[in-house]
Amino acid sequence: MKTLMIIGAAEEHCIGIRTAQRLGYQVFAIDGNSEAVGLSVADASAVVSTYDAEMALNAAREHVKAGGCVDGVMTLASDVPFTVAYIAEHLGLPGIGITSAKLASEKMLMKDRFLEHDVPMPAYQEVFGADDLAAFVEKHGMPVVVKPVDSRGARGVQLIRSSEELPGSYEVAREYSPTWRVMVEAYLPGPQLSTEGFMIDGIAHIPSIFDRNYERLEMYAPFIVEDGGEMPSIYSDDFREEVNQVMQQAALALGIKTGVIKGDLVIHEGRVKVIELAARLSGGFFGTLAAPVSNGVDLVAANINIALGIQLTEADLKPSHQRGSAIRFAFPPVGMIKGIHGLDGVKADPACRYAHVFAKPGEYIAPITNHPARPAVVVAEGGTVAEAVGHAQRLISAIEWEMK
Ligand SMILES: Nc1ncnc2c1ncn2[C@@H]1O[C@H](COP(=O)(O)OP(=O)(O)OP(=O)(O)O)[C@@H](O)[C@H]1O
Ligand SMILES: [Mg+2]
């Protein structure tokens, strides 16, 4: 029996752990949080930071020394492509390679590669203070997006519309960068898409395209906080070809010929632009749950096959049906949680495909400025996208937050 190592063992990783087990594999999971639920779902586990590639490799070696094996390595939802690639390269397992993983996790390196390969994207620049930001604005105009070079989950990502906000935005972004590095981009207005797919032998296959929901943009300004999304995208018919072509170009620019590719895209002035390519499936239950609800393509199983070196075929990525699916998150008021009610009713609802509350009574809800801070999620299904969105909105509102 083959063993798959999964980097991360939180709620969303459990979908990967259980899928691998259902496909007949043993799972060895690691997570830095000893309370992570997946550690006891996996067949074997270790408590190790998912961001520490060397320690994670040591954990894999210890697992093998103790009589286990590691035949493939992957993650889901976590932005740890470097750890995955590092282990794969050192143990001789399938992977995208350390170089591509670095390019995929450091936004300046990524954009420099995109520029060299003519990938359509916003103007960008690394900045070392408010003066650099002002100079960029002088050249490219407002609005701009100020963000850390190497963070994730939209931490410290800010949409800036006025010069007075520039110095503060620099400091905030800097705080969220593990290396204190900040960059700026021209803000590209337009519909935002999230895409899930794979490179197979140099060709992009993108079976799942979501419309991301940014209706809370003003409420949480300047932070860019997404409230879920829905699939199929209303743009999928018109833009599928262009999405495929642009994602393929972006993946090849990073040297990814076979592997998972997730796109953060914007349709700006009628053309697809790349904000970012991640070498993993989305977080936020897009790739793991909502995409298969909508079109039947099991992206997690496909990811597992790639990690184990099993050739994917077009049939693995062919939609079997088309339904609406929608994700929405909870945005409770700021304060201490006294009680959370209504979750059982939400879960029992026929339209509910998944619901989970991450927060607990006694926890303090701060203003929500990034994605990991959203304390509950629902995934709903409907005959159409509009129906699914209606269900998701109804279900997320049915979770009651009693605050102190
Ligand atoms: N230049 C831009 N123009 C338009 N939207 C942008 C721009 N930069 C970022 N965004 C929006 O903000 C989101 C978060 O930005 P980004 O992906 O750079 O940060 P992140 O920390 O990697 O977030 P995540 O982990 O959610 O991808 C993007 O997915 C996109 O929706
Ligand atoms: Mg991103």
Task: Tell me what you see in this structure.
It is a single chain. The protein is an alpha+beta fold and 404 residues long. It folds into four domains: 3-93, Rossmann fold, CATH 3.40.50; 123-186, ATP-grasp fold, A domain (Dna Ligase, domain 1), CATH 3.30.1490; 188-322, 2-Layer Sandwich (D-amino Acid Aminotransferase, Chain A, domain 1), CATH 3.30.470.20; 323-404, D-amino Acid Aminotransferase, Chain A, domain 1, CATH 3.30.470. It contains 13 helices and 19 strands. The protein has helices at 11-22, 38-41, 53-65, 81-91, 98-105, 107-116, 130-140, 166-176, 236-253, 286-295, 299-307, 343-348, 385-397, and strands at residues 3-7, 26-31, 44-47, 72-75, 124-127, 144-148, 158-160, 182-186, 192-200, 203-212, 229-231, 259-268, 271-278, 324-329, 335-341, 352-357, 364-365, 376-382, 400-403. The chain has an eight-stranded antiparallel beta sheet with strand order 13-12-9-10-11-14-18-16, sandwiched between helices. Strands 3-2-1-4 form a four-stranded parallel beta sheet, with helices on both faces. The model has no long low-confidence stretch (mean pLDDT 97). Bound molecules: adenosine-5'-triphosphate (ATP) and magnesium ion.
